[in-house]
Amino acid sequence: MNTLLRQIRNTSLNINFYSRNFSLFPSRRLKEIQEVQNEKELVISARHVPSGREPYLLKNQHETACAVCASGLDIKHTDVLILSQFVRSDGCMLPKRITGLCSKSQKRISILVAMAQKSGLMPNITPPNSK
């Protein structure tokens, strides 16, 4: 699979596979449950409810830039809501292929996550025998 992705990246086509948006606030994925009683049937359906936090979602207008570079935000180690979107549940950084960040932003975000973990703002749940 990796060799296939590498071959696709090396072609002259400019395809952006990992365009990932991030938000200043987590978006709500709410569904409204509707119950309709027919003659002998009870039909239960759900429909998506638009989130009130949609205006805060940062959308990537520039296809060639990563989400952090395109937003122009000055992210600090105290911005744990933003940094937590680039961290797995065990406290480790997500890889660059999943985050969709450029090399410069990926390195900067990983340093900021480490700073936030060392200052106690973010949990570091890695096993004690890891590096």
Automatic annotation (TrEMBL):
Superkingdom, taxonomy of origin: Eukaryota
Sections of the chain in a coiled coil: none
GO MF annotations, alphabetized: small ribosomal subunit rRNA binding; structural constituent of ribosome
InterPro entries listed in its UniProt record: Ribosomal_bS18, Ribosomal_bS18_sf
GO CC field: mitochondrial small ribosomal subunit
Gene3D superfamilies: Ribosomal protein S18
Keywords from the named record: Ribonucleoprotein, Ribosomal protein
An example Gene Ontology biological process: mitochondrial translation
Protein name, entry field: Ribosomal protein S18
Gene: RPS18
